[in-house]
Specification:
The protein is α/β, with parallel strands linked by helices. The chain is built from 14 helices and ten strands. It has two domains: about 220 residues, Rossmann fold (3-Layer(aba) Sandwich); about 90 residues, Rossmann fold (3-Layer(aba) Sandwich). Helix content is about 50%, strand content about 15%.
Length: about 325
C-alpha cells in the first residue's frame, strides 16, 4: 500500500464520517510519566472506527455490485459500520453474526437496515455460503485494501494533531485497524513506534507473528468481543509484520479497571476493545521513556448498561 491510498480514502469519505477529537489527559499522563492523548474513535458514527473502512470499500464497488448487494461477517462493530455505510447508498446488506453477539450490536445493525443472520457455525464459512447462494459481494471486515485504507485515515488525523508523536498504541482484532494506522503513520513519520494490543483469548496476530504466517484459531474466548477475530488477515499480517514495532497481550481481567479509570478521569465510556490501548499502558506492558508523547486509540464505545454495571461492580 502507498500513502496515496490513505489520502484518497480520506477524500472519498468526505463528510460521511466524523473527524474525531484528540483528547489530552493530563492527570493520567502524569501517573505514567508521559504526555498522554486519546484518539476518541468512540465518537465516530455508530460508536466505533468501522464506518471509515466500510464507506471506502462501498465507494470502490461497481454499480452492478452495489445493485447485487453485500454481505459481511462480524461480531458487532463492523456490522454496524457496514450497515451505516450501505444505508447512505441504499445498498441491500446482509450481516452474519455469531451467537455470542450482544443484542445491542445486533439491534444497531438492524436499525440501519441490514438483514442479520445469527449462526453458531463457522462464521466465515457461513458468510461465504450465503455470498454464493445469493450472489452477493463479500465485504471483509479487515482483510481488504480498501478497508485498511479507510481505517488508516485515523493515522493521518493523529499526525495532524500530534505531528511529533512518539508512540501510537492500537487494539488488534483481525488487524484492519492497526495495519491501516501503522502504515499511514510510518509512511509519514517512520521514527514513531506502533504498539499493538491483543487479548490472550483471541491472539490470532500474536500467533501469526510467532509462526510467520496468518493463522486461524480453533476458538476464541475474550470479553473484548470487538477483538474476537478467529483469524488474522493475510494483508493485515503483512502490514503488521512490516510496520508494527511490538505486540502485547492482555488477560480479560486486565481490560476492566482501565475502562473504569478512563470513565472516571475523562468521562469517556469505552468497550473492552476500545480500552485495550490504554490497558497496555496501565498494566506496564510497555517500555516507554518518560516524557514521550503517547496516543492511545480508543477504538469504540459500544458498551451496554448491563456489562458496564458488571465492570463497575468488580472495581468498586
Amino acid at each position: 500500500m502507498e500513502l496515496g491510498d490513505f489520502t484518497d480514502a480520506r477524500k472519498n469519505m468526505g463528510g460521511r464520517v466524523h473527524r474525531t477529537p484528540m483528547i489530552a489527559s493530563t492527570s493520567l499522563g502524569k501517573q505514567f510519566g508521559v504526555d498522554l492523548y486519546f484518539k476518541a474513535e468512540l465518537f465516530q458514527k455508530t460508536g466505533s472506527f468501522k464506518p471509515r473502512g466500510a464507506i471506502n470499500k462501498i465507494l470502490s464497488l461497481t454499480p452492478e455490485e452495489k445493485k447485487r448487494g453485500v454481505v459481511t461477517i462480524s461480531s458487532g462493530n463492523h456490522a454496524q459500520g457496514l450497515a451505516y455505510a450501505t444505508s447512505l447508498f441504499k445498498i441491500p446488506t446482509t450481516v452474519v453474526m455469531p451467537g455470542y453477539s450482544f443484542a445491542s450490536k445486533i439491534n444497531a445493525a438492524k436499525g440501519f437496515g441490514a438483514e442479520v443472520i445469527i449462526t453458531e457455525n463457522n462464521l466465515l464459512n457461513t458468510g461465504l455460503d450465503i455470498q454464493r447462494e445469493r450472489n452477493l459481494v463479500m465485504v471483509h471486515p479487515f482483510d481488504d485494501p480498501a478497508i485498511v485504507a479507510g481505517q488508516g485515515t485515523i493515522g493521518l488525523e493523529i499526525l495532524e494533531d500530534i505531528p511529533d508523536v512518539d508512540f501510537v498504541i492500537v487494539a488488534v482484532g483481525g488487524g484492519g485497524l492497526i495495519s491501516g494506522i501503522a502504515a499511514a503513520v510510518k509512511m509519514k513519520r517512520p521514527e514513531a513506534k506502533i504498539i499493538g494490543v491483543e487479548p490472550e483469548g483471541a491472539a490470532a496476530m500474536w500467533q501469526s507473528l510467532k509462526q510467520n504466517k496468518a493463522v486461524h484459531l480453533e476458538s476464541v474466548d475474550t470479553i473484548a468481543d470487538g477483538l474476537a477475530a478467529p483469524f488474522a488477515g493475510e494483508l493485515n499480517f503483512a502490514l503488521v509484520k512490516k510496520y508494527v514495532d511490538e505486540l502485547v497481550l492482555l488477560s480479560d481481567d486486565e481490560f476492566i479497571e482501565p475502562i473504569c479509570l478512563i470513565l472516571e478521569r475523562t468521562k469517556l465510556l469505552t468497550e473492552p476493545a476500545g480500552a485495550a490501548s490504554f490497558a497496555a499502558l496501565f498494566h506496564n506492558k510497555l517500555r516507554i521513556p518518560q516524557g514521550s508523547k503517547v496516543v492511545c486509540v480508543l477504538s469504540g464505545g459500544n458498551l451496554d448498561r448491563e456489562r458496564l454495571a458488571q465492570f463497575l461492580s468488580r472495581t468498586s
